[in-house]
Amino acid sequence: MKIPEKVLEIADGIKTMKIRGAGKIARAAAEALKIAAEKYDGPREPEAFRKYMGRVANLILSTRPTAVSLPNAVIYVMYHLDKASGDINVLREAVIRAAEKFINESLQAVKRIGEIGAKRIKDNSIVLTHCHSTAAASVIINAYKMGKIIKVYSTETRPFYQGRITTKYLLEAGVPVVQIPDSAVRYIMHEVDHVVVGADTIASNGAVINKVGTSQVALAAHEARVRVFVAAETYKFSPATLIGELVPIEFRDPTEVVPLEWINQHKNVEVLNPSFDVTPPEYIDAIITEQGVIPPQAAILVLLERFGWALEKIKQGGIGKIIFEETLEEEQ
Ligand code: RUB
């Protein structure tokens, strides 16, 4: 059975960044699995359905490599399919219910992070944020509504300019925003009280992988003794890092950095477009999750509590192969 058009559209949307930001990507992944289950009209044998869902899962997993929220969402839904037994209606229901639960809990988590994080913002604060993070924006908007924020500096976030999305988003919520180029971060840092950013992945040692430039922002904040808060749902913690796997950094097309015409005119120049970077735990004051505020060094505890069950499977073959080994073998 062919993968439904709508599912292909979601996969393409993630790849081309029409759907972007780790939380939205995770919810879109769960939604794609749900749609795939709803639209299945292939053979009635449970095994056929499982294989088809494995193919869909692998397609979704192949879209973007860095945000662990994506495999975590896929694994969550597929784990429930794995555990379910019965006819195809039972299996289909298991996928649909797990996907809906993931999406609802994810939205609740963002809301809760906003409430918890806002308490950490001092009165009359100036905040700086980088890229567009729904979780970070949730903290900022909540704190603003509590009368604690007087101004937000939003970096442009070259080359994709997600910072402009943040600026628009915060302005719509009534927050006073100043747009600055990325290169002005250190210049402006002496005015700033808190840096609030999101995360794509948090490693077991508390390192935060977020939009490229985040580590420079954190370094400038560290130098100026400005607190750095990372707002992140617990499904952004990476279980594979518990056994020493590295987080793959996505490199995107050079034409996001300079126009193709420029590349053609300068044939000997290599243009690099790393999409994310790693901020070491030493430069992070706290990670705000839906379960509470933790120091980055406590990331391992969150991981063991939330993903302890997946450890054995990860040890057997890495994150991508947790559940879909059979399908992967078939496709090779
Ligand atoms: C987005 C980005 C965001 C995190 C967190 O990168 O780095 O800071 O994903 O966002 P991209 P959220 O635009 O390349 O996807 O809090 O919305 O999950």
Question: Top keywords for this entry?
Answer:
332 residues, alpha/beta, Four Helix Bundle (Hemerythrin (Met), subunit A), 7-stranded mixed sheet, 13 helices, binds ribulose-1,5-diphosphate
What is the element layout, followed by pairings?
Layout: H1 5-15, H2 22-39, H3 46-61, H4 69-83, H5 88-118, E1 125-129, H6 134-145, E2 149-155, H7 162-172, E3 177-180, H8 185-188, E4 194-197, E5 201-202, E6 208-211, H9 214-223, E7 227-231, H10 260-265, E8 276-279, E9 286-289, E10 292-294, H11 299-307, H12 311-317, H13 325-331
Helix pairs in contact: 1-2, 2-3, 2-4, 2-5, 3-4, 4-5, 5-6
This protein binds ribulose-1,5-diphosphate.
Task: Give an overview of the whole structure.
The chain has 332 residues and is an alpha/beta fold. It folds into 2 domains: 5-111 and 309-331, translation initiation factor eif-2b, domain 1 (Four Helix Bundle (Hemerythrin (Met), subunit A), Up-down Bundle), CATH 1.20.120; 113-307, Rossmann fold (3-Layer(aba) Sandwich). The protein is built from 13 helices and 10 strands. Helix 1 (5-15) runs antiparallel to helix 2 (22-39), helix 2 (22-39) packs parallel to helix 4 (69-83) and helix 2 packs antiparallel against helix 5. The longest helix has 31 residues, at 88-118. Mean pLDDT is 94; it is low at 318-332. The structure holds ribulose-1,5-diphosphate. Ribulose-1,5-diphosphate binds next to helix 2, helix 6 and strand 6. Ribulose-1,5-diphosphate (RUB) is lined by residues 20-24, 67, 131, 133-136, 162, 198-200, 210-211, 275.
